[in-house]
Here is the input.
Amino acid sequence: MSAASSLLNEDQFLCSICLDVFTDPVSTPCGHNFCKACISEHWDRNVPSQCPNCQKVFNIKPDLQVNTFISEMAAQFRQSAQQKASSSSSEQQVVKPGEVPCDACTGTRLKALKSCLVCLESYCETHLEPHLTRPGLKKHQLIDPEENLEGRMCVKHDKLLELFCKTDQVCVCMLCTVLDHKTHDVVPLKEEYEGKKAELGKTDAEIQKMIQKRRLKIQEMNRSVELSKEGADREIADGVQVFTALKESVERSQAELIDTILEKQRETEEQAEGFIKELEQEISELKKRSSEVEQLSRSEDQLHLLQSFTSLNAAPPTKNWTEVRVHPSYEGTVRIAYERAVWQLGQTIRKQMTKLLSKVELKRVQQYEVEVTLDPDTAHPYLILSDDGKQVNFGDVKKNLPDNPERFDACVNVLAKQSFSSGRFYYEVQVKGKTEWDLGVTRESINRKGEITVSPQKGYWVIWLRNENEYEALDPDVRLSLKSQPEKVGVFVDYEEGLVSFYDVDAPALIYSFTGCCFKEKLYPYFCPCLNDGGKNSAPLIISPVNHTE
Here is the structure.
Protein backbone atom coordinates (compact mmCIF):
# COMPACT_ATOMS: atom_id res chain seq x y z
CA MET A 1 0.00 0.00 0.00
CA SER A 2 2.83 2.37 0.84
CA ALA A 3 4.56 1.76 -2.47
CA ALA A 4 1.30 2.25 -4.34
CA SER A 5 0.45 5.48 -2.59
CA SER A 6 3.83 6.93 -3.46
CA LEU A 7 3.04 6.48 -7.13
CA LEU A 8 -0.25 8.36 -6.95
CA ASN A 9 -0.55 12.10 -7.53
CA GLU A 10 -1.27 14.23 -4.46
CA ASP A 11 -4.36 15.79 -6.11
CA GLN A 12 -6.01 12.32 -6.29
CA PHE A 13 -6.45 12.37 -2.50
CA LEU A 14 -8.11 15.79 -2.38
CA CYS A 15 -11.86 16.43 -2.22
CA SER A 16 -12.80 18.94 -4.91
CA ILE A 17 -15.31 20.54 -2.53
CA CYS A 18 -13.23 21.15 0.63
CA LEU A 19 -9.85 20.93 -1.18
CA ASP A 20 -8.47 18.80 1.65
CA VAL A 21 -7.50 15.11 1.96
CA PHE A 22 -10.54 12.80 1.82
CA THR A 23 -12.43 12.07 5.02
CA ASP A 24 -14.78 9.05 4.65
CA PRO A 25 -14.51 9.13 0.84
CA VAL A 26 -17.55 8.05 -1.21
CA SER A 27 -17.95 7.52 -4.96
CA THR A 28 -20.89 8.81 -7.02
CA PRO A 29 -22.47 6.70 -9.78
CA CYS A 30 -20.57 8.87 -12.31
CA GLY A 31 -17.27 7.74 -10.76
CA HIS A 32 -16.16 10.91 -8.89
CA ASN A 33 -14.99 10.88 -5.27
CA PHE A 34 -15.84 13.27 -2.43
CA CYS A 35 -15.83 13.42 1.34
CA LYS A 36 -19.10 11.92 2.49
CA ALA A 37 -19.97 15.01 4.57
CA CYS A 38 -19.04 17.39 1.72
CA ILE A 39 -21.21 15.76 -0.96
CA SER A 40 -24.10 15.22 1.44
CA GLU A 41 -24.09 18.91 2.45
CA HIS A 42 -23.77 19.92 -1.23
CA TRP A 43 -26.85 17.85 -2.20
CA ASP A 44 -28.78 19.15 0.80
CA ARG A 45 -28.32 22.71 -0.52
CA ASN A 46 -28.86 21.96 -4.21
CA VAL A 47 -31.93 20.21 -5.74
CA PRO A 48 -31.88 18.13 -7.88
CA SER A 49 -28.73 16.24 -6.86
CA GLN A 50 -25.89 16.97 -9.25
CA CYS A 51 -22.21 15.95 -9.43
CA PRO A 52 -20.05 19.01 -8.67
CA ASN A 53 -17.42 17.80 -11.17
CA CYS A 54 -19.25 16.57 -14.29
CA GLN A 55 -22.63 18.16 -13.51
CA LYS A 56 -24.47 14.82 -14.03
CA VAL A 57 -27.98 15.06 -12.55
CA PHE A 58 -29.44 12.29 -10.34
CA ASN A 59 -33.23 12.50 -10.09
CA ILE A 60 -33.08 10.22 -7.07
CA LYS A 61 -30.35 11.06 -4.57
CA PRO A 62 -27.83 8.13 -4.68
CA ASP A 63 -27.27 6.09 -1.53
CA LEU A 64 -23.53 6.51 -1.03
CA GLN A 65 -21.22 4.11 0.81
CA VAL A 66 -17.68 4.80 2.02
CA ASN A 67 -15.10 3.59 -0.52
CA THR A 68 -12.79 1.57 1.74
CA PHE A 69 -9.99 1.35 -0.82
CA ILE A 70 -9.78 5.11 -1.33
CA SER A 71 -10.24 5.62 2.42
CA GLU A 72 -7.20 3.49 3.18
CA MET A 73 -5.17 5.23 0.48
CA ALA A 74 -6.18 8.66 1.85
CA ALA A 75 -5.28 7.60 5.38
CA GLN A 76 -1.89 6.40 4.15
CA PHE A 77 -1.33 9.69 2.33
CA ARG A 78 -2.42 11.76 5.33
CA GLN A 79 0.01 9.86 7.57
CA SER A 80 2.82 10.42 5.08
CA ALA A 81 2.02 14.13 4.85
CA GLN A 82 1.97 14.48 8.63
CA GLN A 83 5.35 12.77 8.89
CA LYS A 84 6.73 15.11 6.26
CA ALA A 85 5.29 18.12 8.08
CA SER A 86 6.70 16.83 11.38
CA SER A 87 10.19 16.43 9.91
CA SER A 88 10.14 19.93 8.37
CA SER A 89 8.70 21.62 11.46
CA SER A 90 12.06 21.36 13.20
CA GLU A 91 13.47 23.69 10.53
CA GLN A 92 10.59 26.16 10.84
CA GLN A 93 10.07 28.63 13.64
CA VAL A 94 7.82 27.71 16.54
CA VAL A 95 5.33 30.49 17.16
CA LYS A 96 6.34 32.99 19.85
CA PRO A 97 4.15 35.33 21.92
CA GLY A 98 2.88 38.17 19.73
CA GLU A 99 3.35 36.18 16.48
CA VAL A 100 0.55 34.71 14.34
CA PRO A 101 0.29 30.89 14.67
CA CYS A 102 -0.54 28.47 11.85
CA ASP A 103 -4.22 27.44 12.06
CA ALA A 104 -3.56 24.09 10.35
CA CYS A 105 -0.92 22.79 12.75
CA THR A 106 -2.33 20.13 15.12
CA GLY A 107 0.63 19.53 17.42
CA THR A 108 3.34 22.11 17.96
CA ARG A 109 2.03 25.27 16.32
CA LEU A 110 4.46 26.95 13.96
CA LYS A 111 4.79 30.59 12.96
CA ALA A 112 2.50 31.55 10.08
CA LEU A 113 4.09 32.93 6.90
CA LYS A 114 0.90 34.11 5.21
CA SER A 115 -2.82 34.53 5.89
CA CYS A 116 -5.50 33.68 3.28
CA LEU A 117 -8.36 36.14 2.90
CA VAL A 118 -10.54 33.47 1.28
CA CYS A 119 -9.98 30.62 3.72
CA LEU A 120 -9.71 33.08 6.64
CA GLU A 121 -6.82 31.04 8.04
CA SER A 122 -3.08 31.51 8.52
CA TYR A 123 -0.49 28.95 7.36
CA CYS A 124 3.08 27.98 8.15
CA GLU A 125 5.51 27.08 5.37
CA THR A 126 4.30 23.44 5.15
CA HIS A 127 0.59 24.17 5.18
CA LEU A 128 0.99 27.14 2.84
CA GLU A 129 2.33 24.92 0.03
CA PRO A 130 -1.11 23.97 -1.40
CA HIS A 131 -1.89 27.68 -1.88
CA LEU A 132 1.31 28.03 -3.91
CA THR A 133 0.93 24.94 -6.09
CA ARG A 134 -2.73 23.99 -6.58
CA PRO A 135 -4.62 25.89 -9.30
CA GLY A 136 -7.78 26.34 -7.24
CA LEU A 137 -5.94 27.71 -4.22
CA LYS A 138 -3.40 29.82 -6.13
CA LYS A 139 -6.23 32.28 -6.91
CA HIS A 140 -6.75 33.01 -3.21
CA GLN A 141 -5.45 36.34 -1.91
CA LEU A 142 -2.52 35.98 0.52
CA ILE A 143 -1.32 38.72 2.88
CA ASP A 144 1.24 39.01 5.63
CA PRO A 145 0.18 37.05 8.74
CA GLU A 146 -2.87 38.62 10.34
CA GLU A 147 -4.29 37.30 13.60
CA ASN A 148 -7.76 38.82 13.49
CA LEU A 149 -8.99 37.62 10.11
CA GLU A 150 -12.60 37.77 11.33
CA GLY A 151 -12.22 41.54 11.37
CA ARG A 152 -12.07 41.37 7.57
CA MET A 153 -15.63 40.11 7.45
CA CYS A 154 -18.69 42.34 7.31
CA VAL A 155 -20.25 42.11 10.77
CA LYS A 156 -23.70 42.64 9.27
CA HIS A 157 -23.64 40.20 6.35
CA ASP A 158 -20.72 37.89 7.23
CA LYS A 159 -19.16 38.52 3.84
CA LEU A 160 -15.58 39.47 2.97
CA LEU A 161 -14.86 43.23 3.03
CA GLU A 162 -13.60 43.66 -0.52
CA LEU A 163 -15.08 47.03 -1.55
CA PHE A 164 -14.75 50.63 -0.35
CA CYS A 165 -17.61 53.14 -0.15
CA LYS A 166 -16.13 56.54 -1.03
CA THR A 167 -19.36 58.23 -0.02
CA ASP A 168 -19.23 57.02 3.59
CA GLN A 169 -15.46 56.33 3.65
CA VAL A 170 -15.92 52.77 4.96
CA CYS A 171 -15.04 49.24 3.78
CA VAL A 172 -18.08 47.20 2.71
CA CYS A 173 -18.97 43.75 1.35
CA MET A 174 -20.78 42.90 -1.89
CA LEU A 175 -24.12 42.63 -0.10
CA CYS A 176 -23.67 46.08 1.45
CA THR A 177 -23.53 47.62 -2.02
CA VAL A 178 -26.94 46.13 -2.84
CA LEU A 179 -28.62 47.02 0.44
CA ASP A 180 -27.11 49.82 2.54
CA HIS A 181 -24.88 51.56 -0.07
CA LYS A 182 -26.93 51.07 -3.22
CA THR A 183 -26.57 54.61 -4.62
CA HIS A 184 -23.10 55.29 -3.20
CA ASP A 185 -19.80 55.59 -5.01
CA VAL A 186 -18.21 52.17 -4.39
CA VAL A 187 -14.86 51.01 -5.76
CA PRO A 188 -12.73 47.87 -5.30
CA LEU A 189 -10.68 47.80 -2.11
CA LYS A 190 -7.46 47.59 -4.11
CA GLU A 191 -8.26 50.71 -6.12
CA GLU A 192 -8.89 52.81 -3.04
CA TYR A 193 -5.86 51.25 -1.33
CA GLU A 194 -3.57 52.27 -4.19
CA GLY A 195 -5.03 55.78 -4.21
CA LYS A 196 -4.60 56.25 -0.48
CA LYS A 197 -1.10 54.79 -0.61
CA ALA A 198 -0.16 57.25 -3.34
CA GLU A 199 -1.64 60.06 -1.24
CA LEU A 200 0.43 58.91 1.72
CA GLY A 201 3.50 59.00 -0.49
CA LYS A 202 2.78 62.60 -1.45
CA THR A 203 2.14 63.51 2.18
CA ASP A 204 5.44 62.00 3.24
CA ALA A 205 7.26 63.79 0.41
CA GLU A 206 5.77 67.11 1.56
CA ILE A 207 6.78 66.39 5.15
CA GLN A 208 10.33 65.58 4.05
CA LYS A 209 10.46 68.90 2.16
CA MET A 210 9.27 70.75 5.27
CA ILE A 211 11.91 68.98 7.36
CA GLN A 212 14.61 69.85 4.82
CA LYS A 213 13.53 73.50 4.71
CA ARG A 214 13.75 73.71 8.47
CA ARG A 215 17.16 72.06 8.51
CA LEU A 216 18.37 74.59 5.97
CA LYS A 217 16.80 77.33 8.07
CA ILE A 218 18.77 76.12 11.09
CA GLN A 219 21.96 76.19 9.03
CA GLU A 220 21.09 79.69 7.85
CA MET A 221 20.45 80.88 11.39
CA ASN A 222 23.63 79.28 12.71
CA ARG A 223 25.53 81.02 9.92
CA SER A 224 23.77 84.29 10.78
CA VAL A 225 24.89 83.91 14.38
CA GLU A 226 28.46 83.24 13.24
CA LEU A 227 28.46 86.29 10.97
CA SER A 228 26.82 88.31 13.70
CA LYS A 229 29.52 87.29 16.14
CA GLU A 230 32.23 88.12 13.62
CA GLY A 231 30.60 91.49 13.06
CA ALA A 232 30.35 92.05 16.78
CA ASP A 233 34.04 91.25 17.19
CA ARG A 234 34.90 93.73 14.44
CA GLU A 235 32.70 96.39 16.01
CA ILE A 236 34.32 95.84 19.40
CA ALA A 237 37.80 96.09 17.90
CA ASP A 238 36.88 99.29 16.06
CA GLY A 239 35.32 100.71 19.18
CA VAL A 240 38.44 100.01 21.19
CA GLN A 241 40.56 101.72 18.51
CA VAL A 242 38.32 104.81 18.54
CA PHE A 243 38.12 105.24 22.29
CA THR A 244 41.79 104.49 22.87
CA ALA A 245 42.50 107.72 21.01
CA LEU A 246 40.35 109.60 23.51
CA LYS A 247 42.50 108.41 26.44
CA GLU A 248 41.15 108.18 29.94
CA SER A 249 38.50 110.83 29.44
CA VAL A 250 36.31 108.38 27.53
CA GLU A 251 37.25 105.06 29.14
CA ARG A 252 33.84 104.92 30.77
CA SER A 253 32.21 105.43 27.36
CA GLN A 254 34.35 102.66 25.91
CA ALA A 255 33.22 100.18 28.56
CA GLU A 256 29.59 101.16 28.04
CA LEU A 257 29.97 100.70 24.28
CA ILE A 258 31.41 97.17 24.63
CA ASP A 259 28.72 96.19 27.11
CA THR A 260 26.00 97.49 24.79
CA ILE A 261 27.37 95.62 21.77
CA LEU A 262 27.78 92.39 23.74
CA GLU A 263 24.30 92.71 25.21
CA LYS A 264 22.76 93.22 21.76
CA GLN A 265 24.82 90.31 20.43
CA ARG A 266 23.50 88.18 23.27
CA GLU A 267 19.98 89.27 22.34
CA THR A 268 20.69 88.23 18.75
CA GLU A 269 21.98 84.83 19.88
CA GLU A 270 19.03 84.35 22.25
CA GLN A 271 16.63 85.23 19.43
CA ALA A 272 18.36 82.74 17.13
CA GLU A 273 18.37 80.07 19.85
CA GLY A 274 14.64 80.59 20.34
CA PHE A 275 13.98 80.25 16.61
CA ILE A 276 16.22 77.18 16.36
CA LYS A 277 14.47 75.57 19.32
CA GLU A 278 11.11 76.11 17.60
CA LEU A 279 12.47 74.70 14.33
CA GLU A 280 13.91 71.64 16.05
CA GLN A 281 10.59 71.08 17.80
CA GLU A 282 8.76 71.28 14.46
CA ILE A 283 11.28 68.87 12.92
CA SER A 284 10.71 66.45 15.80
CA GLU A 285 6.95 66.60 15.29
CA LEU A 286 7.32 66.25 11.54
CA LYS A 287 9.68 63.27 11.94
CA LYS A 288 7.15 61.61 14.22
CA ARG A 289 4.40 62.15 11.67
CA SER A 290 6.73 61.02 8.87
CA SER A 291 7.42 57.81 10.77
CA GLU A 292 3.68 57.17 11.14
CA VAL A 293 3.05 57.90 7.47
CA GLU A 294 6.02 55.79 6.35
CA GLN A 295 4.96 52.84 8.54
CA LEU A 296 1.40 53.00 7.21
CA SER A 297 2.50 53.45 3.60
CA ARG A 298 4.65 50.31 3.78
CA SER A 299 1.66 48.22 4.78
CA GLU A 300 0.56 45.68 2.22
CA ASP A 301 -2.60 45.18 4.21
CA GLN A 302 -5.18 47.07 2.22
CA LEU A 303 -7.88 47.04 4.86
CA HIS A 304 -5.55 48.08 7.64
CA LEU A 305 -4.22 51.00 5.57
CA LEU A 306 -7.67 52.26 4.63
CA GLN A 307 -9.12 51.86 8.11
CA SER A 308 -6.09 53.59 9.67
CA PHE A 309 -5.84 56.37 7.08
CA THR A 310 -8.69 58.48 8.41
CA SER A 311 -7.39 58.17 11.97
CA LEU A 312 -3.88 59.31 11.05
CA ASN A 313 -2.92 62.28 13.17
CA ALA A 314 -3.44 65.64 11.53
CA ALA A 315 -0.31 67.47 10.42
CA PRO A 316 1.29 69.33 13.35
CA PRO A 317 0.90 73.12 13.23
CA THR A 318 3.97 74.77 11.80
CA LYS A 319 5.13 78.36 11.44
CA ASN A 320 5.86 80.00 8.08
CA TRP A 321 9.60 80.61 8.44
CA THR A 322 10.12 82.18 5.00
CA GLU A 323 10.44 85.77 6.24
CA VAL A 324 12.03 85.02 9.62
CA ARG A 325 15.56 86.42 9.84
CA VAL A 326 18.14 86.95 12.55
CA HIS A 327 19.37 90.54 12.26
CA PRO A 328 22.15 91.91 14.45
CA SER A 329 20.96 95.05 16.21
CA TYR A 330 24.28 96.52 17.29
CA GLU A 331 25.27 98.20 14.01
CA GLY A 332 25.74 101.95 14.43
CA THR A 333 26.46 101.59 18.16
CA VAL A 334 30.04 102.76 17.68
CA ARG A 335 28.90 105.87 15.83
CA ILE A 336 26.38 106.81 18.50
CA ALA A 337 28.82 106.31 21.34
CA TYR A 338 31.53 108.14 19.47
CA GLU A 339 29.37 111.18 18.74
CA ARG A 340 28.42 111.43 22.40
CA ALA A 341 32.09 111.40 23.43
CA VAL A 342 33.31 113.74 20.68
CA TRP A 343 30.68 116.32 21.58
CA GLN A 344 32.28 116.55 24.97
CA LEU A 345 35.82 116.81 23.62
CA GLY A 346 35.19 119.53 21.06
CA GLN A 347 35.41 120.21 17.39
CA THR A 348 39.08 119.26 16.95
CA ILE A 349 38.63 115.73 18.14
CA ARG A 350 35.34 115.53 16.17
CA LYS A 351 37.18 116.00 12.84
CA GLN A 352 39.76 113.34 13.67
CA MET A 353 37.20 110.82 14.77
CA THR A 354 34.86 111.45 11.82
CA LYS A 355 37.58 110.36 9.43
CA LEU A 356 38.34 107.28 11.52
CA LEU A 357 34.71 106.22 11.75
CA SER A 358 34.16 106.77 8.04
CA LYS A 359 36.95 104.30 7.47
CA VAL A 360 35.28 101.88 9.89
CA GLU A 361 31.92 102.34 8.17
CA LEU A 362 33.40 101.77 4.73
CA LYS A 363 35.18 98.67 5.98
CA ARG A 364 31.87 97.38 7.31
CA VAL A 365 29.97 97.78 4.05
CA GLN A 366 32.83 96.46 1.91
CA GLN A 367 32.28 92.99 3.37
CA TYR A 368 29.07 92.80 1.28
CA GLU A 369 30.97 93.00 -2.02
CA VAL A 370 29.19 91.28 -4.95
CA GLU A 371 30.12 90.44 -8.54
CA VAL A 372 28.73 93.01 -11.00
CA THR A 373 29.00 92.90 -14.80
CA LEU A 374 27.31 95.05 -17.45
CA ASP A 375 24.39 93.68 -19.45
CA PRO A 376 24.82 94.39 -23.21
CA ASP A 377 21.10 93.72 -23.81
CA THR A 378 20.27 96.90 -21.83
CA ALA A 379 23.03 99.18 -23.22
CA HIS A 380 22.19 102.19 -25.42
CA PRO A 381 23.51 101.62 -28.98
CA TYR A 382 26.15 104.37 -28.59
CA LEU A 383 27.74 102.71 -25.57
CA ILE A 384 30.88 100.56 -25.84
CA LEU A 385 31.21 97.71 -23.33
CA SER A 386 34.42 95.81 -22.66
CA ASP A 387 34.53 92.08 -23.33
CA ASP A 388 34.62 91.30 -19.62
CA GLY A 389 31.60 93.52 -18.94
CA LYS A 390 33.52 95.70 -16.49
CA GLN A 391 33.95 98.97 -18.48
CA VAL A 392 31.62 101.28 -20.40
CA ASN A 393 32.15 104.53 -22.30
CA PHE A 394 30.39 106.58 -24.95
CA GLY A 395 31.30 105.78 -28.59
CA ASP A 396 31.18 107.90 -31.75
CA VAL A 397 29.19 105.38 -33.82
CA LYS A 398 25.68 104.15 -33.08
CA LYS A 399 25.61 100.34 -33.34
CA ASN A 400 22.80 98.52 -35.13
CA LEU A 401 21.31 96.56 -32.23
CA PRO A 402 17.87 94.97 -31.75
CA ASP A 403 15.48 97.30 -29.95
CA ASN A 404 14.44 94.82 -27.27
CA PRO A 405 12.25 95.91 -24.31
CA GLU A 406 15.23 95.94 -21.91
CA ARG A 407 17.38 98.36 -23.97
CA PHE A 408 17.60 102.11 -23.32
CA ASP A 409 16.95 103.93 -26.62
CA ALA A 410 17.30 107.64 -25.73
CA CYS A 411 19.46 107.94 -22.60
CA VAL A 412 22.99 106.51 -22.71
CA ASN A 413 22.44 104.12 -19.80
CA VAL A 414 23.24 100.50 -19.09
CA LEU A 415 22.26 98.12 -16.27
CA ALA A 416 24.09 95.21 -14.67
CA LYS A 417 23.23 91.61 -15.42
CA GLN A 418 22.86 90.90 -11.71
CA SER A 419 19.73 91.76 -9.75
CA PHE A 420 19.10 91.80 -6.00
CA SER A 421 15.83 91.34 -4.13
CA SER A 422 17.02 90.87 -0.55
CA GLY A 423 19.95 91.35 1.81
CA ARG A 424 22.88 93.73 1.35
CA PHE A 425 25.29 94.29 -1.52
CA TYR A 426 28.23 96.57 -2.33
CA TYR A 427 30.35 97.35 -5.39
CA GLU A 428 32.84 100.03 -6.46
CA VAL A 429 33.13 102.04 -9.69
CA GLN A 430 36.16 104.02 -10.84
CA VAL A 431 35.17 107.50 -12.10
CA LYS A 432 38.69 108.93 -12.39
CA GLY A 433 39.19 111.34 -15.33
CA LYS A 434 35.47 111.88 -15.96
CA THR A 435 33.67 115.21 -15.88
CA GLU A 436 30.15 113.74 -15.93
CA TRP A 437 28.62 110.44 -14.78
CA ASP A 438 25.56 108.84 -13.14
CA LEU A 439 25.67 105.94 -10.66
CA GLY A 440 23.13 104.16 -8.51
CA VAL A 441 20.46 101.45 -8.57
CA THR A 442 17.08 101.13 -10.29
CA ARG A 443 14.08 98.89 -9.93
CA GLU A 444 13.29 96.34 -12.62
CA SER A 445 10.13 98.03 -13.96
CA ILE A 446 11.68 101.40 -14.88
CA ASN A 447 10.84 103.02 -18.22
CA ARG A 448 13.73 102.47 -20.66
CA LYS A 449 12.32 104.18 -23.72
CA GLY A 450 12.42 107.87 -24.62
CA GLU A 451 13.40 110.64 -22.24
CA ILE A 452 13.67 109.54 -18.60
CA THR A 453 13.07 111.38 -15.34
CA VAL A 454 15.57 110.18 -12.73
CA SER A 455 14.12 110.17 -9.21
CA PRO A 456 13.20 107.72 -6.45
CA GLN A 457 9.53 108.12 -7.40
CA LYS A 458 10.39 106.80 -10.89
CA GLY A 459 12.48 103.95 -9.50
CA TYR A 460 15.97 105.52 -9.59
CA TRP A 461 18.26 106.07 -6.57
CA VAL A 462 21.12 107.93 -8.26
CA ILE A 463 23.83 110.53 -7.69
CA TRP A 464 25.62 112.30 -10.54
CA LEU A 465 28.45 114.64 -11.49
CA ARG A 466 27.95 117.55 -13.90
CA ASN A 467 30.28 120.29 -15.13
CA GLU A 468 33.36 118.69 -13.52
CA ASN A 469 32.55 119.58 -9.88
CA GLU A 470 28.76 119.83 -9.46
CA TYR A 471 27.55 116.78 -7.49
CA GLU A 472 23.86 116.09 -6.87
CA ALA A 473 21.74 113.40 -5.28
CA LEU A 474 18.58 113.15 -7.34
CA ASP A 475 16.32 113.11 -4.28
CA PRO A 476 14.95 114.93 -6.27
CA ASP A 477 17.77 117.53 -6.40
CA VAL A 478 20.14 117.73 -3.42
CA ARG A 479 23.37 119.63 -4.01
CA LEU A 480 26.34 117.84 -2.44
CA SER A 481 29.32 119.68 -0.99
CA LEU A 482 32.37 117.44 -1.24
CA LYS A 483 35.82 118.35 0.03
CA SER A 484 37.53 116.37 -2.72
CA GLN A 485 36.52 114.84 -6.03
CA PRO A 486 36.01 111.08 -5.72
CA GLU A 487 38.05 108.89 -8.07
CA LYS A 488 36.31 105.73 -6.95
CA VAL A 489 32.71 105.56 -5.71
CA GLY A 490 31.34 102.72 -3.53
CA VAL A 491 27.63 101.88 -3.74
CA PHE A 492 25.99 100.04 -0.80
CA VAL A 493 22.37 98.83 -0.58
CA ASP A 494 20.50 97.33 2.36
CA TYR A 495 17.30 96.03 0.76
CA GLU A 496 15.35 95.34 3.94
CA GLU A 497 16.39 98.62 5.61
CA GLY A 498 15.54 100.65 2.49
CA LEU A 499 19.01 102.22 2.38
CA VAL A 500 21.21 103.25 -0.58
CA SER A 501 24.57 104.83 0.37
CA PHE A 502 27.41 106.24 -1.75
CA TYR A 503 31.02 106.47 -0.51
CA ASP A 504 34.20 108.21 -1.59
CA VAL A 505 36.42 105.15 -1.29
CA ASP A 506 39.77 106.95 -1.17
CA ALA A 507 38.79 109.67 1.36
CA PRO A 508 37.15 107.58 2.91
CA ALA A 509 33.86 109.39 3.44
CA LEU A 510 30.11 109.01 3.07
CA ILE A 511 28.86 111.02 0.07
CA TYR A 512 25.09 110.59 0.49
CA SER A 513 22.42 108.14 1.66
CA PHE A 514 18.87 107.58 0.44
CA THR A 515 16.97 106.43 3.54
CA GLY A 516 13.45 105.15 4.18
CA CYS A 517 13.20 103.59 0.71
CA CYS A 518 10.56 100.95 0.08
CA PHE A 519 11.85 98.24 -2.23
CA LYS A 520 9.37 95.72 -3.62
CA GLU A 521 11.07 94.73 -6.90
CA LYS A 522 14.43 93.49 -8.06
CA LEU A 523 17.14 96.17 -7.98
CA TYR A 524 19.77 96.53 -10.74
CA PRO A 525 23.05 98.50 -10.54
CA TYR A 526 22.77 101.49 -12.92
CA PHE A 527 25.52 103.23 -14.94
CA CYS A 528 25.62 106.25 -17.24
CA PRO A 529 29.04 107.42 -18.61
CA CYS A 530 27.33 110.44 -20.26
CA LEU A 531 28.46 112.03 -23.56
CA ASN A 532 32.14 112.52 -24.48
CA ASP A 533 31.93 116.32 -24.41
CA GLY A 534 34.56 116.74 -27.11
CA GLY A 535 36.88 114.23 -25.49
CA LYS A 536 36.79 115.80 -22.01
CA ASN A 537 34.61 112.97 -20.70
CA SER A 538 35.95 110.05 -22.76
CA ALA A 539 37.27 108.05 -19.78
CA PRO A 540 35.24 104.92 -19.08
CA LEU A 541 33.32 103.94 -15.97
CA ILE A 542 35.13 100.89 -14.57
CA ILE A 543 33.66 98.35 -12.16
CA SER A 544 36.64 97.69 -9.89
CA PRO A 545 37.48 94.92 -7.42
CA VAL A 546 37.23 96.03 -3.81
CA ASN A 547 40.53 96.77 -2.08
CA HIS A 548 39.35 96.21 1.48
CA THR A 549 40.19 99.13 3.73
CA GLU A 550 42.63 98.31 6.53
